[in-house]
User: Fold this.
Amino acid sequence: MAACLLTCSLAAQVDRYELGLRLRSFERRLDTVTDEARRLEAFDALDRAVQAFFRLDTKTVAKAIDEADCALDGGDWSVAMRYAHSLQWQLDARLVSAGDAAVTGKLSVAYRIEDEDFEPEDWSLVVRVPGSDQATTILLDELPQAVSVPLVGVPVGDHMLKWQLVQGAQVLLEREQALSVVTNLAARMAGLVKARGLAEDQEPATIESKTLPSLIRMLAGMQRRRAAETVLPGAEILAEAEALSAWMLESQAEPEGVGTTAFYGGHRPGSFRLRVPVGKRTSSVRLFVPKVEAKAPLVLALHGAGGSENLFFDGYGDGRVVDLGAERSWLVVAPRLTLGSLDCPALVEALARRFPVDTKRVLMVGHSMGAMQAITNAVRAPERYQAVAALGGGGRVSRSNGLAKLRFFVGVGTKDFARSSASGLHRALKAAGAASDFREYAGVEHLAIVQLALADVFRFFDEALAR
Assistant:
């Protein structure tokens, strides 16, 4: 959800990158807590976060996520702990050069707690950077407070800095902050300019020509204070952009008719951030490609309203859909949805021309608005899918012979505002002659349904492929 928040003024709101860090931390904690009462209380708080999201009130979103985290702890945070959780540490850049002496940023209040008279005393920010045995300790002063952390000894690569807020010897808060360190940053960014021009001028457009400018924009954004919506591995992205740039320049120099192997394809397993030409449009996607010897099933993952391609890969249970796909050696693609319905069959065909996609074993899962788009695509071309899962959402159904042969999974929480839409979808599917498996999750609201239901969804997919 944090990845789907619209950009708002930082002075008035909490940015979506910060919300993403908090939400991913909560999702990891949720997997470790088995106490049902604590989980149900956490879901109530998460429901408040969802409602605040639809009001674009990101301060309340951040506060409600922290309240959900508190519930998992038993709901007994002290005033000091609540105040600590209300603070945020923002870096001025998340991609820096190895020659930089320090990384700068600020510590500030993300939202107000109920006890506004509380004043921290004897508090420090403690930051542990990779490659150093010594932590940087900064005494808290009046907020917002400028913070500078030395980078001496930090190795090149993508890191998560560990930071704490402590009062005396008591640790009140532990969090992470992403930082990427590379050598010769300015020169390497400048070196991408020529290939970027070639890419933007290339006709017809290809995955490579559309993806390179996108990667460069990501890298440029990481050098500004305003963060992207999700954690980006800057060192990894820079290396990929340079390799892609070199490939494009080499391809341009090839004698006519010789050609070179495509940069992106089944010969390169891994996780990618791509721009894929689909007809007259270009779709931004996150794609996971396993190492396989033959064509494999593909899972289409469609995010909720206001989201992006990052939500299934970085949220919804900290990217659980990718883990479940990897366990089975399946491809997973999460496209960015926009106004109107995405042509999923066309996207699948575009990917299948490059990657080992078995177009006869395509599975689809959608959440909220993504559930509706999944149903729309299934109704239009039921023969293109093996199974479809709709979580926390509904959709319009019309009877057809193809639809009657397709299997559906409809999942929703009992506290989800979309519960009636989901149950209505199940009834409509049954009336249309389709096989529909309807499951309710007690006490679960609109967001956590994806994290909690995905394991059931993939078992459902396993059964559908086995038939």
In short: Confidence is low (pLDDT under 50) at residues 1-11. The chain has four domains: 2-76, 87-180, 185-253, 270-466. The chain has 15 helices and 16 strands.
